[in-house]
Specification:
The termini are far apart. The chain is globular, with a radius of gyration of 28 Å. The chain has 18 helices and 10 strands. It is mainly α. The chain has 3 domains: 72 residues, no CATH class; 97 residues; 234 residues, Intergrase catalytic core (hpI Integrase, Chain A, Orthogonal Bundle).
Amino acid sequence: MATVILHKKNKSDKDGILQISFYNGEGKKKQKSLGIKISEKHFKLYYNKDFKAFRKNTEIDYNKINITISENLGDDPFGKIQTDDLIAYIKKRREIVANMNSKQNITSLLFNLEKYMGQQKISVLTFDMADMDFLVGFKNYFVARGVQGNSIKMYFVVLKSILENAKESNLYHHNLRSLNKKVKVETEKKVKELLSIADIRKLMEADDNYLYIQPIKIGLFQLFTNGSRISDALLMRFENFDEYGITYVTKKNTKTLDVPWSPDLVNTLLWIWNLPRYEMPKVIEFNPHRPTPFPKSVVLSQEERNQMSYENNLAAVRKHIKSRKKKDFVMPWLESREILADYDKKMEFTAEQHKKFAVASNKLRRQFAHVRKDFNLDCKRLSTHTFRHTYASLLIKADLSIYDISKSLGHSSVKITEGYLSKNFDMDKKIDIANKLRKLIQ
């Protein structure tokens, strides 16, 4: 058992050094310094003893500290994990990993390992049995099930890391040098993951009775909230609304982002909440008994109609927001997911919350595949990330700078934005560049 403590030389000191206290269950205790200085105030405010990690915040480098804690929690000053059972060893490693994503990856690996063992009629998997032939067979098990190459690669990255740890403890003796070559899999080629303007219009005009209407509404919400990530879109609450639009902190990197009101965002919200959308008529008829100097009717321009419709719809959205509790989810389908009801973005997911959220995200991915096929969309793949990529692509076509696009998306680096744009650098853009070059030469 291990826990993180703040060690201070004197009780009156405001700062201390983070340490890990190890207990062997027999009354013995050993401590290991992490060499990280932190104030008592920040320790009490942000450290969560249940997760053995610091909450997300903007005052300390919580991510770097959590990585250091996670790397050292696995140490055992009373002796390494001693077992010849690979499955038992992996379960023990999972217990001492702090990061929930890593825990989930190990859990998925265990599930598939045990399923493969069942196929092979293996009751106990020892380290000696996990040789190269076994690992190749495990890879073929994934291939036969139609698991994508990128997912297989992830499983073996996790498994290799665990086996290398076991090797350091002198538990695993097989050579891992040829592992990458032996279990090499074909990863998916990058495909166009952008919606055309025609695609977007098709989705905006989808029938409310369509079987997979929910993912369409969520995707358009992502698009019109400046390409928000699916994790932020699904976890958006009514407390994120304000007078000017939406303000929220991203789950991934704790960036604060503002999304102003817009006609498309307002219309999408009304659609999500099944509220009627108001459309201003072309002609406004007045009381026929008005005095003669006043006109009996007024013909509105399209611009006037659009503006008046937007103002009426925005008023309807604001009225609905006031009628809801601040902690309610914007997406009504999440209200029944009680496991997420008390989730705070400053915290990491619990194992159960992570599992529930992953189930919801995976369900959306499967539904998007049906949407792409049913609407005959131009994009080669429709996923929970497509709307974010599309938003970035539309901004570059509108001649916005890559710096502005990066800030709008909440990226921690412009390089990430460059990756977005290079992945979907389509033929139309290449033709446009060629035409501009030709004009310069002529």
